[in-house]
């Protein structure tokens, strides 16, 4: 059950510093949306407001609305923990739990949330690892530590871990930036598959990657250091790359930036 | 510039740094080895199972037999109780400081932990003496000593727990939050297990520190030559105190017992260290084994 995300008038703060200002955008269910833009323009910050991970950092604050279908994630009475179960996240650096085996890593989200029952878990673990294209590589060593995998395998393990709790939306913050081209391709293929079940938002610095995997692309920019990041435009990916409506987007994409 | 030529001064610097570091190591290790050697040689004379399992009840200082069982039992119980109080308490304080503490209260706690860290053990003993025995009217007992030892172990244990929890990468906590795991489960199931080997080592160092403390037990356990398994009433023996008393005696038989007791104490502490290492190894992230 993929869901639609509707962001309006979103600003986020670190202490008194406003990192992003007045962001409004829509992400359709079962699509891949790419966030691009220069370093520090607030892509990660926007992404982290979508599953209320922003507020994990002390002293942070969010204004505006994030609707998931019709529910405002920042509305009264919303439990951030429940939000994060619905909106999963994969980070830039693979971060498997070092004390856990491959199996335990994938089962972690369920186990830590109190799901017991070996047979249920076995099924979910296999299904998630297959979903993350990792099953064949690890099926004979599920009880070996997750840290013993290669970087690319670890990242796919983290994707398996994220999809094991069956979220509706998957957020990925530069999931391939620490990976070699082959692992990157494996993950891009995976994103294309996952699209049929999930709403996906991916941050990337790699233009070709954005062009390859995404249906829509959002370009963010900052006016200068200390200024908040803003959404310049969001449109169908082919349009953004061939014929953007904003000059800044074209400059950034063609490398005539700054 | 030749790629094969190493300048003579650099070679010299390298060699001298090597020699200085080696010499520093030898100098540091000499006292350690000589202490161990002396204790083993002098302690071996009386050290046997008879010594380990008999007390000094009805033994005169001039007798060549007698043992330290009452003292070993007392020390194990006193240290055990202190550890039983300190370990959960310091875990909770450490978790509070790292995971929840902000502002005044946590600053105050950190400050007092620092102050307690430098507290002389005799002061901890005097404090319990004045509050627990003179103030509240309790008798000298093993438990009174446990209280003083708790005061001494607490800052070490809190500080090491704190440092180990700080070492756990924020990325792991975020990974857990992002799965929709609540904060307290993240702490108990992800953060603590990751930090566990370091925490265990820290606790063991704390226990090793208090096991040899003499000043507080001197003030608090009372005087007895007999076995008393109950730390809550009547005086109880203590190993460091036994070492102290026997070595003060002018009779060679007593001094020999003092050395054997010292050897026992060192062996106990080494055993604890060994156990700590085993636990740390067993619980360490499997990849680093
Ligand atoms: N934990 C933090 N505390 C304070 N300021 C932060 C924090 N994280 C990010 N910022 C600031 O917020 C702004 C946006 O940062 P963000 O990480 O969202 O950028 P980004 O677009 O993801 O950059 P990159 O492409 O380099 O990852 C930056 O100015 C950054 O300095
Ligand atoms: Mg970023």
Q: How would you characterize the overall build of this protein?
A:
- Chain A: One of its GO terms (biological process) is phosphate ion transmembrane transport.
- Chain A: InterPro entries: AAA+_ATPase, ABC_transporter-like_ATP-bd, ABC_transporter-like_CS, P-loop_NTPase, PstB-like.
- Chain A: Residues 5-247 form the ABC transporter domain.
- The complex is a heterodimer of chains A (258) and B (289).
- Chain A has 258 residues and is of the alpha/beta class.
- Helix content of chain A is 35%, strand content 26%.
- In chain A, the strands form two sheets. Chain A has a six-stranded mixed beta sheet with strand order 6-7-8-3-9-10, with helices on both faces. Chain A has a four-stranded antiparallel beta sheet with strand order 2-1-4-5, covered by helices on one side.
- In chain A, strand 4 and strand 5 form a beta hairpin.
- In chain A, helix 3 crosses helix 4 (118-131) and helix 4 crosses helix 6.
- With 289 residues, chain B is mainly α.
- In chain B, helix 5 crosses helix 6.
- Chain B is globular.
- Chain B has a single domain (49-288), classed as MetI-like (MetI-like fold).
Question: Main attributes?
Answer:
heterodimer, A: 258 residues, alpha/beta, Rossmann fold, six-stranded mixed β-sheet, four-stranded antiparallel β-sheet, 10 helices, 35% helix, 26% strand, globular, B: 289 residues, mainly alpha, MetI-like fold, 11 helices, binds adenosine-5'-triphosphate, binds magnesium ion
The run of helices and strands of chain B is: HHHHHHHHHHH
Low-pLDDT segments, ≥5 res of chain A: none
At CATH level 2, the architecture of chain A is: 3-Layer(aba) Sandwich
Whole-number count of domains of chain A: 1
Largest interface: A-B, 32 and 25 residues
Q: Assign the CATH superfamily of chain B.
A: MetI-like
Determine the strand fraction of chain A and express it as a percent band: 25-35%
Question: If classified by CATH, what would the architecture of chain B be?
Answer: Orthogonal Bundle
Biggest beta sheet attributes of chain B = none
Query: What is Rg of chain B?
Result: 24 Å
Q: Please state the average pLDDT score of chain A.
A: 92
Oligomer: heterodimer
- β-strand number of chain B: 0
Q: Tell me the span between the first and last alpha carbons of chain A.
A: 41 Å
CA radius of gyration of chain A is 18 Å
CATH topology of chain A: Rossmann fold
Keywords (chain A): ATP-binding, Nucleotide-binding, Translocase, Transport
Pfam families (chain A): ABC_tran
Organism (chain A): Actinospica durhamensis
Protein name (chain A): Phosphate ABC transporter ATP-binding protein
